[in-house]
Design goal:
The complex is a heterodimer. By secondary structure, chain A is an alpha+beta fold. Chain A has eight helices and seven strands, in the order ββααββααββααβαα. The longest helix of chain A has 45 residues.
C-alpha cells in the first residue's frame, strides 16, 4: 500500500497531474522567487556597503575611507590602515605603538573614518608605490625596533620629518570651504523659501485631515443607516 | 489485497513519486525539502536584513527616483552612526517623518559627497549645518598645532577660534594645510561649534515660522472645512432617507 496523506487528497488529478506536483512547483517557485526578490530588491542596491555585513559576521572593524571630494568607500580595517598583506593582529605585534582610531559604531561594527586624499589605501596607486618603497627600506633598517606597519604611523613620521618620501605631505583646505562649514551665521531670512514650502505642506496636511474626519462621519452615518434597516428587517421577520 | 486496501475515489499513484522511501513517499520528501529551503532562504535574508539595519536606507535611496530623498550619514553624540534616508528641500535637510523636528541647513555644495550610487550629506545632533569633515579636520588640526606650539594659548572653544580666524587667514592665505592621510573624529569639532545651534532648535524655529505663515495665509477659512461639511451633509441626508424608508413614510423625493 503506497503512502497516502490526507486520505489521498494530494493524489487527486488537477490538470492531468497529481495535486502534489502543483504544490511542489509552487514551493519551488516560492524558494527561487523569494531568494531572487531579496537579492534584487534588498541586497543588490546595498552593494557598496556589503563590507558592513562581512565585518559583522567576522567580528572585525571596518572603515569609511573618503577623499577631498567626500567620496566615501567602505573598506576593511586592513585595507584602510595596513601597509602589508598581514592580519591586524600580526601588525599590532610588529608595531607595538599602534594608534587606536577615534571611531564610531554602525550597529555592532566599529567603523573608523579615514581621510585619504591621495589614494594611499589603494595598492598600486602612484603614492602607495612610493610609500611601499620607502617603508621597505625603513623597516629593513629598523627591524624589531621601530617598524612601520600602518599608514597613520607613516603619515605621522612624514609630517614630523622623520622619514622622507617623494610624495605630497599636505593638502590645502581653502578658507571658503572652512567658513561655509563652521562659521556660517544662523539667519532666518535665508530660509523664507523653505518656510513657504513648509506652510503649503501644512495647509495640504490640514485639508487631508479634515477629509479623513469627513470619511469617519460618513462611515458612522452609514452604520446608523445599516442598523435602522437591520432593525426593520428583524421586525418583519 | 485490493479489497482490503480500498483506494479513495480519484486517487492516482505515480510509479516514481509515490514509491515509498522508508515510511514516506518520494513526493512528500521533496515537499519537506522544498519547505525547509523556503524557510532557510528567507531566514538567511532576514539575518542580512537585520545586520544591515544601520545602512539599510542607502538601498532605499539608491532605488528611489525622488530627488527630495537624500542619503545622509547621521552621527550621534553617543558615537554611533548610520545611513538614513532624509528629505532635502530648498537648502534644508529634514526627516521624512513629521514627528522628528530636527533640521539642518546646507551651507555649501562642498559638504556633499557620495556613497555608492548616490550623493551623501553628513548631519549630527550637535550642529544645525551639514557637516564637512575636511573643513573640520583642518580646523581641529590647526587648533592642535597652535596649542602645541604656544603654552599660553588654549584654543578650545568656538569663540576663541572665531577670534583668531583673521590672524589665521593672514598666516595661511591659501587655506589650512593638513596631512593627506588622517583619522577623522566626528566628536572633536564639537568644541569649535557654537553651543546654541542644535538641529532640534533650528527645526522648531522653522516649523513655528511655517505654522505662523500658514495661519497668516488663511484667507479662505471655509475652504479647508468644505470636505468635512459635504461629508456631514451627505451623512445626515442618508440617515433621514433611511429613517423615512424604515418608518414607511413617503419620501419627499418620491
Amino acid at each position: 500500500m503506497p503512502f497516502l496523506l490526507f486520505n489521498g487528497a494530494l493524489n487527486q488529478l488537477v490538470f492531468g497531474l497529481q495535486l502534489y506536483f502543483w504544490v511542489m512547483l509552487a514551493l519551488f517557485i516560492g524558494v527561487v522567487a523569494s531568494y531572487a526578490a531579496w537579492y534584487v530588491l534588498f541586497w543588490q542596491p546595498l552593494k557598496p556597503l556589503h563590507g558592513h555585513f562581512s565585518a559583522h559576521v567576522r567580528k572585525e572593524f571596518n572603515a569609511f575611507v573618503f577623499n577631498f571630494y567626500l567620496k566615501f568607500v567602505l573598506k576593511s580595517e586592513k585595507e584602510a590602515k595596513l601597509l602589508y598583506n598581514e592580519t591586524i593582529k600580526e601588525a599590532r605585534l610588529a608595531q607595538p605603538d599602534w594608534e587606536e582610531s577615534p571611531s564610531g559604531r554602525m550597529g555592532r561594527v566599529q567603523t573608523d573614518l579615514i581621510f585619504d586624499a591621495h589614494r594611499w589605501t589603494e595598492i598600486g596607486s602612484p603614492a602607495r608605490n612610493e610609500i611601499d618603497k620607502v617603508v621597505e627600506v625603513w623597516n629593513e633598517a629598523e627591524k624589531g625596533k621601530d617598524e612601520i606597519h600602518t599608514l597613520i604611523k607613516f603619515s605621522r613620521y612624514l609630517q614630523e620629518g622623520k622619514i622622507a618620501c617623494p610624495i605630497d605631505k599636505t593638502i590645502t583646505v581653502p578658507w571658503l570651504r572652512i567658513r561655509a562649514a563652521i562659521f556660517t551665521p544662523k539667519t532666518t531670512g535665508k530660509w523664507q523659501g523653505y518656510i513657504g514650502q513648509l506652510a503649503e505642506r501644512l495647509k495640504k496636511d490640514q485639508k487631508s485631515e479634515f477629509m479623513m474626519y469627513g470619511i469617519y462621519v460618513l462611515i458612522f452615518c452609514a452604520l446608523i443607516c445599516v442598523m435602522m434597516i437591520g432593525t426593520k428587517a428583524l421586525h418583519l421577520i | 489485497m485490493a479489497d482490503i486496501f480500498q483506494l479513495p475515489p480519484g486517487v492516482v499513484f505515480d510509479p516514481i513519486f509515490d514509491a515509498g522511501i522508508g515510511a514516506m513517499s518520494l513526493w512528500l520528501i521533496i515537499l519537506i525539502i522544498l519547505t525547509i529551503a523556503l524557510v532557510v532562504a528567507n531566514f538567511y535574508w532576514i539575518y542580512h536584513f537585520l545586520v544591515m539595519a544601520p545602512v539599510r536606507d542607502s538601498g532605499k535611496v539608491s532605488k528611489s527616483t525622488d530627488i527630495k530623498i537624500q542619503q545622509t550619514f547621521l552621527f550621534g553624540k553617543n558615537r554611533s552612526f548610520s545611513i538614513k534616508a532624509l528629505e532635502y528641500l530648498n537648502g534644508i535637510l529634514s526627516f521624512q517623518e513629521n514627528k522628528f523636528i530636527s533640521k539642518w541647513m546646507l551651507t555649501s555644495p562642498t559638504s556633499v559627497g557620495t556613497v555608492g550610487f548616490k550623493s551623501v550629506m553628513i548631519a549630527s545632533d550637535t550642529f544645525d549645518c551639514i557637516r564637512d569633515p575636511i573643513a573640520e579636520l583642518a580646523i581641529c588640526m590647526i587648533a592642535r598645532e597652535l596649542n602645541k606650539n604656544n603654552e599660553n594659548l588654549e584654543i578650545d572653544s568656538y569663540s576663541k577660534i572665531l577670534a583668531i580666524l583673521p590672524a589665521l587667514e593672514n598666516a595661511y592665505p591659501a587655506g589650512i594645510p593638513m596631512p593627506v592621510y588622517a583619522s577623522y573624529d566626528p566628536a572633536e569639532i564639537q568644541k569649535f561649534t557654537p553651543t546654541d545651534r542644535d538641529p532640534g532648535m533650528f527645526g522648531r524655529m522653522l516649523n513655528r515660522d511655517a505654522a505662523k505663515l500658514n495661519v497668516a495665509q488663511e484667507e479662505d477659512g471655509l475652504e479647508k472645512y468644505l470636505p468635512l461639511i459635504l461629508f456631514v451633509a451627505a451623512g445626515i441626508i442618508g440617515i433621514i432617507m433611511t429613517y423615512l424608508y424604515v418608518s414607511g413614510a413617503k419620501s419627499p423625493v418620491g
